[in-house]
Each structure stands twice: as C-alpha cells, then as structure tokens.
C-alpha cells in the first residue's frame, strides 16, 4: 500500500492528508514544523486530549471555536477558570462538550503554570524529550515511542490529565519534535530544513 498521494501541484505527500479537505493545508504548513511557543504547545496538547476517541478532522474544523472559547489557550487565563466557565463551555456547541476533557484542560493549565515556574517555559521542558537524530532518520507507522511514553509518564506524575503516550506521540509529531513525513513527501525536506535551523528552547 502506497504511503503517498499526488497533491494538487503534482507532488507527492503523506497519504493521510487526502482523508479530508482541511488536511492538506494543515499537512503542508503546520504538521511537523518545530514549535517553541508555549501557548501553541499547550493548545496542541489540549486539542489532542479533546481528540481522544474522535477524529482529528472533528477537532481541526472546530479549532477556531476552541481558540475563542479558551482565550487562545493562554494557560494563565485558563488556570483561573471557575465553575461558571465550565458551565459556559458545556453549552458551547462550537467545541467538544465533554466535561472531563474541559476540566482536564483547566487542570493542565494550572499544572503548566507550575511547570513554567520550575523550568522557565513549557517549551524548555517538552523539547528535552526530542528523540536523538538516529531515531529521526526514518518515519515509522507507529502511535507511540519511548520518548512519548517518558513524556507522558512525567506529565502524569506532575498531575496532568488526558496525556497518554498515544496522545503525546501525536503531539510530538505535530509540533516538530519528530519528522514523521514519509520519505517521498515533498514537505519532509522543508521540515528538515526548518528543524536544522530551529533553536531548541532551554539550550
């Protein structure tokens, strides 16, 4: 089975990006490119937790609604959310209305604040779990890794919720800690160039 599809420009891309119309732009311009912004990292961890049991398309098409509902994933603001905010979010048809996941984001925002006080930034902590270069050489069809299991375990130990190894691995793929674009994908080389020049936080 082919791991690639031919894109609208005639160039090869990862096969998964043909599964929904919204995926092509996300694949070409976001997925796999390294991110060091704390709010974007927190957003992605939160959205991946909302995705649990659902498709990424469901979350992606609602992403702007999530951003509005959660103040662009500013965890300092989310950490102050009260029962009133939970009630508001449970009535918001633009997002996934799951009490446990909403409460997890608020909890995780508070844990993120603690982590930033301790480590300086969320990015500095997360990027410690970047796999070594040998492991980045070839993309693999897997849903976890030793690093995602380690990061998941560490976050859970600190009190984070909805951050299992599969959720964390998808987060690491998307935020550029791993380049899992397939070998023939036209975007893989672009990601590799950006990764090469990317300044790792905390180093």
From TrEMBL:
The keyword Zinc applies. Gene3D superfamilies: Hypothetical protein, domain 2. SUPFAM superfamilies: DNA-glycosylase (SSF48150). GO terms for molecular function: DNA-3-methyladenine glycosylase activity; metal ion binding. Zn(2+) binds at residues 14, 27, 181, 185. InterPro entries: Adenine_glyco, DNA-3mA_glycosylase, DNA_glycosylase. Keywords: Metal-binding, Zinc. One of its GO terms (biological process) is base-excision repair. It comes from Paenibacillus azoreducens. Signal peptide: none annotated. This is DNA-3-methyladenine glycosylase I.
